[in-house]
What does this fold into?
Amino acid sequence: MLPGVSEMLEAISDTGHILHLHEIGKLFTLNVFERLYIPRLVAEELGRYGLDAEAIDLSSPISIVPINREQRDRVLGEIGQLPIHPADTEVLILAHEGGFSKPILTDDMALRRELEFRGALVIGSVGLLVRAYNKALMARADLDHAIDALFDESTLHLSSAFRGYIRKLINDLGKVC
It folds into this structure.
């Protein structure tokens, strides 16, 4: 395990987690972290979906971090230009600036691969819901409902095969506890 990761007091998020958790009424699960960092472009993307990142009501504050051109150019010079969305590039830059020590919340596969290649801990939306359950922020029935809602009601695109895999993992949670 990476040093300090077991506590996971702070995390960096892309647009997806905040949007999808909002869509299923589970934004509170972001409270598994004491602070959430998002780059300015993520905040702007959320605004295009009608979400004001500065007005999201959580016990864990969301800090919006501007990425300036010099910072962007320097980091991209070190890691190279990547085939990912500009907001995701800013997530990668934030992670890089922090030495990849904070967990990153994303469901984007291209970003996930880049982050994991660099040693970052990446948590998907399903993983975040399970963490919220493990921290007693939600009951087991709420977890089951949230997983179903993530597949059925959110804009997150997940395959039916992945759904079956997740359903099996969730069912196995009860056997391990």
Notes: The first helix runs from residue 15 to 23. The beta strands are 10-13, 35-39, 62-65, 104-105, 122-123. Residues 1-6 have pLDDT under 50 and may be disordered. Helices lie at 15-23, 40-48, 69-79, 86-97, 109-117, 125-134, 140-152, 160-176.
